[in-house]
Specification:
Two copies of one chain form a homodimer. Chain A has one domain: 3-Layer(aba) Sandwich (Rossmann fold), CATH 3.40.50.2020. Helix content of chain A is about 30%, strand content about 35%.
Chain lengths: ~190, ~190
Amino acid sequence: MLLMQQRILRDGVVRDGNILAVDSFLNHQMDPELYQEMGREFYRLFGGCGVTKILTVEASGIGIACVAAQLFGCPALFAKKGRTKNLGGEVYAAQVESYTHGGSYTILVSKRFLSPGDRVLLLDDFLARGSAMLGLMDLVAQSGAALVGCGVAIEKGFQEGGRLLRERGVRVESLAIIQQMDQGRITFA
Amino acid sequence: MLLMQQRILRDGVVRDGNILAVDSFLNHQMDPELYQEMGREFYRLFGGCGVTKILTVEASGIGIACVAAQLFGCPALFAKKGRTKNLGGEVYAAQVESYTHGGSYTILVSKRFLSPGDRVLLLDDFLARGSAMLGLMDLVAQSGAALVGCGVAIEKGFQEGGRLLRERGVRVESLAIIQQMDQGRITFA
């Protein structure tokens, strides 16, 4: 998506440790027009796949999932990190390794909201090593639902996540794939 | 908002400890039509107030803020819980007491995204004791921005948050105000 590439070039900031800061428009402050266009693009890509549920993980994916859900006309669902008192009943759980924060954490969804009849689209802001997406795929597999594919705003093409998912036969659609972030200069695949 | 009241009566579940579970449509699974109507109602209430930024706190407020931001045509911004590596630079910080999880936590926004010229609308899913809203108000005050008001999906009218905010002269608009949750029976104000 050209708009995403342009926005990354204009407002993205490369920080030490291969961190791309896009907090002015994507994952802290969120630009409404960009979000609308992201939703439209995901709908263009996956709108014909019979999606019944959009699944993401808190926190940055929630806005993307909610705006896209408006277009798909299906519920959005976000996996929670760690157990909270508000999450009653039985849950599907998966482990996710965190490279940003170190360590690992558990993601959970209530069993009431994913079932074998569902066709699930996974959406998230970033795809880097793929750990969050693999965790979400684990939740979908446990539920018996069908995985339609993964949509991400920004894929770090120089990390292994995209390859790991595509090797498993998963359809991955990234709105921008960064090939390289060399000395602050960003090039796209 | 009649639609919110109807939905709470139909799908809300009262659990021990005055917890109202609305995870099938509001804060785990999110209903796209309800979200759209919530956005429209917040826009009807606050659309004429010159809002330049919608501020919420992760995680459950993010979807509401993003969908509303589409209608307001302004950015949404979510305060993060605790410091993350992705949040570079200087931040405004406030403490929030958590009654659901116990203890307290810090919420943060980058100083780049709130400034004295902003007119800020706070949105969240729940207003109970008001601690999250007070924390967000603290962030807004630190930035010098003007507070337009608070919009919440569900206010627990039998807890003190709404009164605390209104006593300070803050405009609070709740889409549903629960007066009582007695033995599982919900009545609205």
